[in-house]
C-alpha cells in the first residue's frame, strides 16, 4: 500500500513537471494558449490512477523487486524512472480519452467539474467573442484532447530512452500503440451501439455490449497498462500470460461497475449526474439484460425513454426502479463478482512477484467495490 501511495505521488510530480515545462513552451508561442495548461492541470489533478498503478505493478511483478525501497527517487534507479514516466504517460492518454469521450457524450461535467468543452465554451461566453460558443467549446476541447494524446507519446518516449533494454523498450512501445488503436476502435463501437441497437438483433446484444466493454475500457484500463509495465521489465511469455489472464477479466469487471454507476451512482461521489447513461442512451450490458428480462410493455417504455436528454429526476428514478426490479442489476453484480474471482484466481501460482500479487488482490477489491 505504501508503495502504491508513493507511486501516485511520483506520477503526480512527473505530470506537474511535464506540464510546467510545456507551459513555458506554449507561453513562448502565445499567452492565449494558457487554457490548454490550465484545463490539463484540472483534469490531471485527480482520479484513481488505476492505469498508472497497473503499469507500475506490471513492471514490479516481473522484475521481482520485493525488497525495493518505495521511498527511492526515480533518478536513483533508471528503470524505475522509466516505469514512472510510462505510468504518467498513461494518465495523459486517459485524460485525452476523457476529453474526447465527453465531447461525444455531450457531458457537462467530469469529476464534479465542468468538462473540457464546457470550459472552452465558458471562456468564449465570458469574453463575449463572436461566433458560436458551443462550436468553439467543442473545437477547443478536440484540440486539447489531441494535444494530450501527443504528449502521452512524448512522455512515454522520454521514459523509454532511459530503459537499459532496447527489446523491452520496443515491446512497451508496441503495447502502447496496440492499446491506442484498440480503445479508438472500442470508442467507435460504443458510439455505434448507442445509435444502432434498436435495429440490431436482440439475440446478440450481450455479445455486442461485451465487445464494447473489452475494447473501449477493459483492455486499456487494466490489461494494456499491465502489459506495458510487464514489457518494461522484460516479462517472459508465462509472465505476460499471467498478467493478461488477471487483467482482462478485471478490466471487464471495472467497466461493468462503471455501467452500474452510470445508472445508479451518487452524483456527489461520481461527479456526474445520477442516471446520466440513461439520458445519453448508453446501451450497456445492464440495459441489454434488463430488456431481455422485462415484459413487453415495460421494455417498450424503457426503449422509448432511453436516450432522451430531457429526462427529469422522476423519470430517472422510475427507470432505475424498472431496471432494478427486472433483476438486471443483481445479474450484473453477479457478473462483476465472477469476473473479479476469475482475475484473482489467475494469480494463484502465477510467476509474478509476491509484492505485486498482494497488491493485485487489493486493487481487484478496489475495482469491484468502487463508488466513482
From TrEMBL:
Domain of life according to the entry: Bacteria
Pfam family, one: polyprenyl_synt
InterPro entries for the chain: Isoprenoid_synthase_dom_sf (IPR008949), Polyprenyl_synt (IPR000092), Polyprenyl_synt_CS (IPR033749)
Cofactors that this protein relies on: Mg(2+)
Signal peptide coordinates: none
GO-annotated molecular function: metal ion binding; prenyltransferase activity
A GO BP entry: isoprenoid biosynthetic process
Keywords, comma-separated and alphabetical: Magnesium, Metal-binding, Transferase
UniProt family annotation: Belongs to the FPP/GGPP synthase family.
Full protein name: Polyprenyl synthetase family protein
Amino acid at each position: 500500500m505504501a508503495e502504491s501511495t508513493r507511486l501516485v505521488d511520483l506520477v503526480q510530480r512527473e505530470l506537474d513537471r511535464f506540464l510546467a515545462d510545456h507551459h513555458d513552451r506554449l507561453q513562448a508561442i502565445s499567452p492565449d494558449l494558457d487554457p490548454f495548461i490550465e484545463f490539463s492541470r484540472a483534469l490531471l489533478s485527480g482520479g484513481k490512477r488505476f492505469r498508472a498503478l497497473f503499469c507500475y505493478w506490471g513492471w514490479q511483478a516481473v522484475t521481482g523487486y520485493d525488497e525495493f525501497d518505495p521511498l527511492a527517487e526515480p533518478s536513483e534507479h533508471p528503470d524505475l524512472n522509466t516505469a514512472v514516466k510510462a505510468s504518467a504517460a498513461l494518465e495523459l492518454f486517459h485524460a485525452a480519452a476523457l476529453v474526447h469521450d465527453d465531447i461525444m457524450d455531450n457531458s457537462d461535467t467530469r469529476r464534479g467539474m465542468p468538462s473540457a468543452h464546457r470550459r472552452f465554451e465558458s471562456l468564449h461566453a465570458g469574453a463575449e467573442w463572436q461566433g458560436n460558443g458551443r462550436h468553439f467549446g467543442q473545437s477547443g476541447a478536440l484540440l486539447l484532447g489531441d494535444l494530450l494524446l501527443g504528449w502521452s507519446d512524448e512522455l512515454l518516449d522520454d521514459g523509454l530512452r532511459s530503459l537499459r533494454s532496447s527489446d523491452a523498450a520496443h515491446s512497451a512501445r508496441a503495447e502502447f500503440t496496440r492499446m491506442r488503436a484498440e480503445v479508438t476502435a472500442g470508442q467507435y463501437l460504443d458510439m455505434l451501439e448507442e445509435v444502432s441497437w434498436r435495429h440490431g438483433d436482440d439475440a446478440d446484444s450481450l455479445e455486442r455490449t461485451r465487445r464494447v466493454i473489452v475494447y473501449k475500457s477493459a483492455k486499456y484500463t487494466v490489461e494494456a497498462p499491465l502489459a506495458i509495465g510487464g514489457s518494461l521489465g522484460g516479462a517472459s511469455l508465462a509472465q505476460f500470460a499471467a498478467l493478461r489472464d488477471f487483467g482482462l477479466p478485471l478490466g471487464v469487471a471495472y467497466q461493468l461497475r462503471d455501467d452500474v454507476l452510470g445508472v445508479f451512482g451518487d452524483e456527489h461521489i461520481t461527479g456526474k449526474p445520477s442516471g446520466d447513461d440513461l439520458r445519453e442512451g448508453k446501451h450497456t450490458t445492464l440495459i441489454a439484460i434488463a430488456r431481455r428480462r422485462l415484459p413487453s410493455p415495460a421494455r417498450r417504455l424503457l426503449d422509448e425513454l432511453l436516450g432522451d436528454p430531457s429526462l427529469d429526476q422522476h423519470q430517472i428514478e422510475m427507470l432505475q426502479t424498472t431496471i432494478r426490479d427486472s433483476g438486471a442489476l443483481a445479474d450484473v453484480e453477479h457478473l462483476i463478482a465472477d469476473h473479479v474471482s476469475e482475475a484473482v484466481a489467475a494469480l494463484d501460482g502465477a510467476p509474478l512477484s509476491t509484492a505485486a500479487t498482494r497488491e493485485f488482490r487489493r486493487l481487484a477489491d478496489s475495482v469491484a467495490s468502487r463508488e466513482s
